[in-house]
Amino acid sequence: MIASLVIGGVILLAMIGVSCYGWVILPADARVPIHFGAGYNNFVSKGLGLVMHPAAGVVIYVISAATTRNPAKASSAVYIFPIVMCVLLVVQVGAIKVARSRSWMIG
Fold first, then answer.
1. Model pTM score
2. 19, 44, 76, 90, 101 from 105: Cα distances, Å
3. Which of 9, 63, 89, 99 could staple 32 via S-S, CB 3.0–4.6 A?
């Protein structure tokens, strides 16, 4: 269970690092795609888009930490939450790639 929290923490740091990378490489007027669940073409400002993915990672990490406190309930959570965080990280990298390609096409 501790390993799950350590892995989640490493993934969360990677998400923060990817956001910092995106902050440096994206122009100020870049629009970052975010999937809110309702539609696919949702583009938000650079600042909001780069903060939303790590914020979602923090929420998942806190839920993971809360559920792994009880060993009886933590059996499946040990595997599920790091996988969800990995998916968020991959989506974040993809969103930055799309934002980067769109900003070069527009500007």
1. 0.85
2. 21, 17, 44, 23, 6
3. 99
